[in-house]
Structures are given as C-alpha cells and as structure tokens.
Queue: 2 jobs
Job 1
Amino acid sequence: MNKSELIEALAQETGLHRNVAEQVVKEVFSAMTESLINGEGVEIRGFGSFSIREYGSYTGRNPKTGEKISVKPKRLPFFKVGKGLRERVKNKVGQ
C-alpha cells in the first residue's frame, strides 16, 4: 500500500471526502516527521515505534574502486515492529 492507496482507504472507510482524507494523512506524517527531527520517538501501540538511531563515523570502502573512505556520523530513522502487528502477520502466514 502506498500513500495514495492509504488516502483512498481512509476516505472509503470513514466517508470523508478524499481531499480531507489526504490532509489528515499528510498531517499525521508531518507530525511524525517533526517528532523524529526533534529527537523524539513515535509510538503507535500494537503497530510499532519509530525512533532515531545515531551512528558514529567509521572507515568504509568504495565498492567500485576499493578505496578507503571516511563515513561521517549520521542520524537515521529506525522502525521497531510492535508485538500486536508481529503476531498478526506471523499468524497470517500459510493461511
């Protein structure tokens, strides 16, 4: 499911006009993004949690040339699946 399909599903399920559903989805994503930018986590019980992981600098290598390169420290979003979602997906396999 992509963002457009999510908007369409929300509109159909709730009876909201598509433009309103689109604004709701955009606002939810925007609020989640802002929280992560500010270093705060986002937890949706039964679904999972989003957090920021910080990675230190290290020496890597260019796979094309084999040349050693310095990789700068970085902050990246990380998703940890919730127990409820994990169980629902796991139990759906093979049915």
Job 2
Amino acid sequence: MVRLMDLKQVCQILNVSYSRACELARTGVLPCVRIGRTIRVHAEKLDEFIERGGFRLPGGWRRRPPEHAEGTA
C-alpha cells in the first residue's frame, strides 16, 4: 500500500515553508502526484529523496535509476 502525505507534513519533515514545498512539487523536484487540485507526496520516495541529499532521479520520478549509477563516482 502506498502511503501519501500532504504538503503540510512534507513541510515539517523538510523544514521548509509551504510555498517552498509547493514550488518543489510543481517543478518536479519532490516525488509527488496530483489528485484533483491537491498534491500528495509518496512517503517512501520522499525518504529516498532525502537519502540522496535532495536530488531527484535522472529522467524523473517515474523511471528507475540506472543499475550502474550506484557506487560510481
């Protein structure tokens, strides 16, 4: 089951303002989905985003990272 969070929860986790979280979601930096006019963030993908230091995947969130990307300099 996919756990979705609203942007207020994301703001608390990332310690950013609501407008900044909206901007990150709108520009595709945050792993999010739109449900009508609301924006929801995948909790697991947000954890991955944080672990990578705030960088999104090459090619966007719907694609898997290349197999060789891990462990390369």
